[in-house]
Known about the structure:
Blueprint: E1 9-10, E2 18-29, E3 32-37, E4 39-40, E5 57-61, E6 64-68, E7 70-76, E8 81-83, E9 97-105, E10 116-121, H1 123-146, H2 165-169, E11 170-176, E12 179-185, H3 188-192, H4 200-220, E13 225-229, E14 238-244, E15 247-252, E16 267-273, E17 279-286
Parallel strand pairs: 1-4
Antiparallel strand pairs: 2-3, 2-10, 3-9, 5-6, 5-10, 7-8, 7-9, 11-12, 12-17, 13-14, 14-15, 16-17
Helix pairs in contact: 1-4
This protein binds zinc ion (ZN).
Zinc ion binds next to α1.
Amino acid sequence: MSGPTIDSVVTFPAGSLTESAVVQLVARADGELGVVTDRTPFHPLDPTWPDQGPDLGTIGVDGRSAAVLDCRVGAWDGTDLFVGSAVPVRRGEPGWTFVVVHVLAAGPLEVASGDEVTLTVDEQHRAALSAGHTGCHLAALALNAALAGRWRKQPRVDSLGHPDFDQSAITSSRIEPFGSVDEYRLGRSLRRSGFDAAGLADDLPALTETVTATLDRWAAAAGEVRVEVAGPGLADRREWVCLLPDGPARIPCGGTHVRSTADVAPIRVHLTLDESGSQLTMHTEVGSPIR
Ligand SMILES: [Zn+2]
């Protein structure tokens, strides 16, 4: 079976919603079709850090179309296609091609290698996740700034120069439509690296106020948001960049985003600590002009 020889060209980092493409590979399993094309605007779920869910939308060929029910990262070794958590190698592994796999129900639409197709992303679903993802990164940076005084040793810092609580303590991040949920572990290893969690439960209201004030200031500044790419392929490194009054913020990121901090105003966070005091949860909600 022939297949792709280079990584899927992805256009979602620039915000694209539709592309014409050529089918390179069609895999069939469990009543589903996995369709790989040379280029795509679809953002797939990343199995290594599954924060932002897949784009949804349609794939069309010869005037007919079918729903894209899921979208996953795949890896092709020249013989077999591995999908999602079954991918056995890291990105950049020689001899492997990283591709976007568009999942359709088998049956309604026949697609074959060489077909010219039109890929169209559900715009509202994308916009909701982009808003949630931008809000998530801004809230993380505002939280880092608000917790800076709790570090007794100098840990690694974020792109704004604050101790990077977010990257030191995060255990999971889930992007939702117009929001996100981030879980932080306040364990022994975080304390050993210098973070002082004493009295944090009592401090949550003041902490929330500080984070909110920072987020309001950043949203009011209408800072440009963009995704910078090291190359056009799915496996190329991508970075979220946001021009804030405090300086340019950068976070490695495979997701999609809005264009301006003004697009997510107002951003509100809700911080909760579990009873043992070892798990901090940040719920973030963003406003949106399209809501
Ligand atoms: Zn991200």
